[in-house]
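Hi V.,

Quick status before I head out on leave. The structure for the redesign project is tokenized and pasted below; the design run finished overnight.
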């Protein structure tokens, strides 16, 4: 029996050693798993932060684009209004030019008529002077 006891003790010691080795392997595997899981969590957090950064950058870009579109629309509206005003001014200037030309023609005709009347009056004065009737006209005008 002693021999059996010795064999059983050796088996027990071997099994204890085996249990300790397996426990150490399990502990090492758990430590490794914890490290891998922590690395995974950090990587996931980094990816999440990066995605949030890209999203906020995208939101800012969309806002800028929207602001630029609004500015472009306002500028286009101003250009249309300016074109309308410019067209109206051009029409008004053309109308004013036509009226001015008509006024010049009317005044030139009046000047010609007045010159003709002056020439006729001068001719009449000349004729009356030559006939000696000038005194009579001057006396009646007073």
């Amino acid at each position: 029996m002693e021999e059996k006891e010795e064999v059983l003790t050796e088996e027990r010691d071997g099994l204890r050693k085996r249990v300790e080795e397996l426990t150490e392997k399990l502990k090492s595997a758990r430590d490794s798993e914890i490290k891998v899981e922590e690395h995974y969590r950090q990587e996931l957090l980094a990816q999440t932060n990066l995605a949030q950064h890209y999203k906020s950058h995208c939101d800012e870009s969309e806002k800028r684009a929207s602001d630029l579109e609004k500015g472009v629309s306002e500028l286009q509206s101003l250009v249309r209004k300016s074109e309308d005003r410019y067209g109206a001014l051009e029409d008004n200037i053309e109308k004013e030019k036509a009226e001015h030309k008509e006024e010049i023609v009317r005044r030139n005709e009046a000047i010609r008529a007045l010159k003709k009347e002056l020439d006729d009056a001068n001719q009449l004065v000349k004729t009356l002077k030559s006939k000696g009737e000038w005194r009579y006209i001057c006396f009646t005008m007073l």
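Above is the designed sequence. The mean pLDDT is 90.

G. will cover questions while I'm gone.

Best,
W.
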